[in-house]
Amino acid sequence: MIRHLLAAPVLWAWLVLPAAGMDAASINNAEYESSKPPVERKFDALVIKAQVLLDRARFSPGEIDGKLGENAQKALKAFAEAKGLDPKRPLTPDTWKALAGTSSDAVITEYKISNDDIKGPFLERLPARMEDMKKFKALSYTSPREAIAEKFHMSEALLEALNPKKKFDQAGEMLLVADVLRGDSKLNVARIQVDKSLQTVKAFAQSGELVAFFPATDGSKEKPTPSGTFKVVSADANPTYRYNPAYKFKGVRSKEPFTIKPGPNNPVGSFWIGLSAEGYGIHGTSNPSTVSKAESHGCVRLTNWDADLLGRSVKKGAPVAFVEQAPTGGKS
Questions:
Q1: Which of 1, 179, 267, 289 is least surrounded by Cβ atoms within 10 Å, i.e. has the fewest?
Q2: Is the pLDDT of residue 294 over 70?
């Protein structure tokens, strides 16, 4: 079931991109100019810039796709709230000023495809059924394009739009990519809060400071996300997925347990944060575009890169609180 959140009309500074395509200068130089609604399903230079700046500031917009979707709106509102600004609208002149002030570096940069980017192995296709995944030696990427897009926290569609006619399977090819923070950076995470209503995850330092924000997918009516406070019991990169028939996932017919090898397209993605609630965790996903838009099997799903950052930054024993916003309106 697709969830439609933050559907109210929003105001946005609209910046028309060149008809021939997008270029680094138009995105790097984009500035808030006037309040106009964006054109639906269109890439926007200012949105791209805002998403990269949010990613750097640890207010994840999820997948950087150049569109003002619900995850970008969530991140902008969370950023505004953290800065003591009006969070009711995704973007205001004050919010943009604060966001632009977080980094002056160009948000789009050049990247040369390396031999490692194209060496694979790659899957020809990702099986739709979980049982069909167990025969693969690894749940790898399906193409160099997918791997490169995820490396830079981008949608494949935006990567292609920025690089028309480029070959993503050719070492030495120069690409335009989002210049996001990567590598071994870690945060000081003392506790985690999962908001089941808003489908968000917040990470806090021991001092109470909010150090990271992520859009998330929580459970379904069939397999709801738990309530209460639990603890982190494990944090594992490149996890093996183990299916237990007791889970009774919809669409899985196996009556016997089975395992699925590690890889970014594994059902739990490239990182697993196990919780003291048996069978539940916070993990990555094979499809970052579905985060906060499609239900999970009860666990909390983030993009692979967000799960990796959170998993490397939290220690065993850290509390994870599941909260739910009280409904507004209606009868008392």
A1: 1
A2: no
